[in-house]
Fold this protein.
Amino acid sequence: QPPQHLRQSPAFNKEVFVDFMGAQIKTLSFLAYIIRIYQTEVGHHSTLMVKGMLSLLTICPHEVAHLRKELLIAARHILATDLRSKFVPLMEKLFDENILLGKGWTTFETLRPLAYSTLADLVHHVRQLLPLADLSRAVQLSSKNVHDESLPTSIQTMSCKLLLNLVDCIRQRSEQEGGNGKELLVKMMEVFVLKFKTVSKLQLPILISKHLPPPAPTPPSSSTAILAPLTPGVPSLAPLQSPATPGNPQTPATPATPDIKTETVDIKPAPSPAPAALGQDKESLELEKKVKFGFPTSQAGNYSVSDCRALVKTLVCGVKTITWGLANTKAADGNTQSKQFQPKETLIYIRLVKWAMEALD
């Protein structure tokens, strides 16, 4: 691979570099295709393969999102084999989103579900081998994804399930390494409580509004009933004026109609300040375009009852598992006899009851 100072040189031919990287990723895809057949032979060179994959993820240009997508798909097939344990020493780099996803806007918008699901699958299978520091990084990234409303609900549910599966590993590693795993479990409980609040405050109102029956058409019928007696009244007034004009030779009856016409003409130019309103509308549209460009799209329109039900079920199971972990994890001072919650933990459970009851209603 070309070093950093050569890649930043003005004379560096980026097109040739992208073509060469595409050939490397194609080779890796072919290797992922045959890896199950020749897994023993590939295992002898697995260390070089892992370093090469991380190098490709690191230096892949953010302009070529299709190459990173193909690389992630190949990595997903390779991580489905027993060679996934070779990635454990380098998990810190995989948790770095600048390496996993790069800094491109297109990759950020399109490849996050694929990247996060691939990483979550890897963490789930090697969680017993990870130290407490890597488990803490996994909790931090998964907690962020749980509250990322620009991600699909299925990815949020997957992140909740991953946090649920890490509870026992955190308890064991905290006892082995003497770390403060209980504080990490308290943070996870706060994440789940806040997600209950998000479901009750944001997702449930959207789902209820989507499934409410349309309003009854009573207002239109009442308005037509009110207008009905007015419409026959107009012709009744017109005949009163028409016989009066031929019976009396008064000529002023004729200029009365132009007065009405002039009134209508005066009414037409009344909305003259429309250009200012149009200018304001144009400015508001331009402002909306500016705000929406580069802003992550909301998944509110894709909410469904089944996804919300699966998410709430996962949250309930996660809270139960975290509560068990908190009761059986040693504190920072090594005391495991005290089963009582601290005041901060009690406040979290009070908020849990409040928001979970609303989400389950």
